[in-house]
Write a structure and sequence with these properties.
Blueprint lengths: L3 E3 L2 E2 L5 E9 L1 H4 L4 E5 L8 H4 E5 L11 E3 L12 E5 L4 E6 L7 E3 L23 H10 L6 E5 L7 H14 L4 E5 L8 H9 L5 E6 L5 H8 L4 H14 L3 E8 L7 H11 L5 E6 L5 H4 L1 H4 L7 H12 L5 E4 L23 E2 L16 E2 L11 E3 L11 E3 L1
Parallel strand pairs: 5-6, 9-10, 10-11, 11-12, 12-13, 13-14, 14-15
Antiparallel strand pairs: 1-8, 2-6, 3-4, 3-7, 4-5, 7-8, 16-17, 18-19
Length: 393
């Protein structure tokens, strides 16, 4: 399910951000199917002045002061969603999807690293307008439980980062906030103190670390002294009481480093909350660096198993992201997570006959036709994948 929806008709005069407040049906109002979106906070009393009708077809009369037609994609929009509406380029982007596992605030398009496998290459000039971020948060439900802040590199815009974190705190101080950052600029203790002073207790920094050897890590992220900066940032965040997650993308450059890296993490960062081993996306810089990066998941199963087993036996919480059951050996199944964003996940036709499909995290939609899968058959009723034996067909 895409987060971007084409507009087929409208009478709007400006770009805006709205929250979907209510839905109606054709039978109730004798009009095309539609839902009502509102700018800012909910206000039924003011709906005539600030309401926008989202329709499945162009209205034949002037029942609505403001309207947008999105054709058969109206069913993709739900109550509680937050929409960025651009009538000039004729699209709606869903900024916040109610009930989604992947609601993200995109803070900046610039970065101080240039990773070989970056799925969303950074821009030289920041293309993000802060005004729309704050409008997105204004429209986000007050009961929001989880948000991810990403980029680019969020710490490159420290004032914006702190402002957004403050907005989230004012909306729900218990919200779980996950900042995806290389933490290089967190070597600045002042920045870390500013972030901590906001008061978000459920704040985690997800930080990539690709090798215990500084030169190898720096090569992968294409930035001199990045390893030293990141390590200092990790210690500063932990010293301030901010949770740290280590993220390791699995590819040809990192697999040979796993043994030394996991030993390094355990001995140097025993305080980290989580270690995530991540299947590589096939987007962005990966395409031009394919030969330098690509290794089939089947080829690194033993290395991955040994790395996770080492940390798990020492009490460190580990997960595997972005890989399906059939591409992982049985000993790794308890660590697999449904990590792919709900609007990016997809399955091959062969997956429909797999007994593990309901529990599987699937594939990225752009991998659907290129990543081979092997449907799994399980004997017995309602098996636990942590204990079962299986045959691959």
């Amino acid at each position: 399910m895409s987060n971007k929806i084409k507009i087929f008709g409208h009478n709007l005069q400006e770009t805006t951000v709205v929250r979907v407040l209510d839905t109606k049906t054709k039978n109730e109002v004798n009009l095309p199917n539609y839902c009502i979106a509102f700018i800012g906070k909910e206000s039924r009393n003011g709906c005539k002045s600030i309401g926008i009708a989202l329709l499945d077809e162009v209205p034949k009369d002037e029942n609505f002061a403001s309207w947008i037609s999105v054709g058969d994609k109206l069913g993709n929009i739900c109550v509680g969603d937050v929409l960025f509406v651009n009538p000039y380029k004729e699209y709606i982007r869903i900024l916040y999807r109610n009930g989604s596992n992947a609601n993200t605030i995109f803070l900046t398009s610039t970065c101080n690293s240039n990773c070989l496998m970056c799925p969303q290459p950074p821009k030289e000039k920041d293309e993000v307008e802060e005004e729309w971020i704050h409008r997105q948060l204004l429209c986000t439900p007050d009961e929001v439980e989880e948000l991810c802040i990403t980029g680019g590199e969020p710490t490159l815009v420290p004032d914006r980062l702190c402002s957004v974190l403050r907005d989230i705190y004012n909306k729900n101080p218990l919200c779980h906030v996950h900042v995806l950052s290389n933490a290089r600029l967190c070597k600045n203790v002042g920045l870390v103190k500013s972030i901590k002073s906001i008061g978000l207790n459920n704040l985690t920094f997800g930080i990539p670390l690709y090798s215990a050897t500084p030169e190898i890590h720096d090569y992968i992220v294409q930035a001199k002294d990045a390893f030293d900066d990141t390590v200092t940032g990790i210690y500063n965040l932990a010293s301030a009481g901010i949770d740290v997650e280590i993220r390791i993308v699995l590819h040809k450059q990192t697999i040979p480093e796993l043994k030394r890296l996991t030993d390094y993490i355990y001995n140097k960062f025993p305080f980290v909350r989580h270690v995530a081993f991540m299947g590589m996306e096939h987007m962005g810089f990966v395409k031009k660096n394919w030969n330098e990066l690509w290794i089939s998941p089947e080829q690194y199963q033993d290395d991955l198993y040994k790395a996770i087993r080492f940390l798990n036996l020492r009490g460190m919480y580990c997960s595997i992201y972005n890989l399906p059951f059939c591409l992982c050996q049985r000993g790794l199944w308890p660590f697999l997570r449904n990590s792919i964003s709900d609007y990016k996940v997809d399955f091959r036709e062969e997956c429909q006959c797999c007994d593990m499909k309901d529990d599987c995290g699937g594939l990225f939609h752009y991998q659907r036709n290129v990543m081979p899968v092997i449907p799994i058959r399980v004997s017995g009723l309602n098996p636990s994948y942590r204990n079962l034996k299986y045959n691959q067909t």
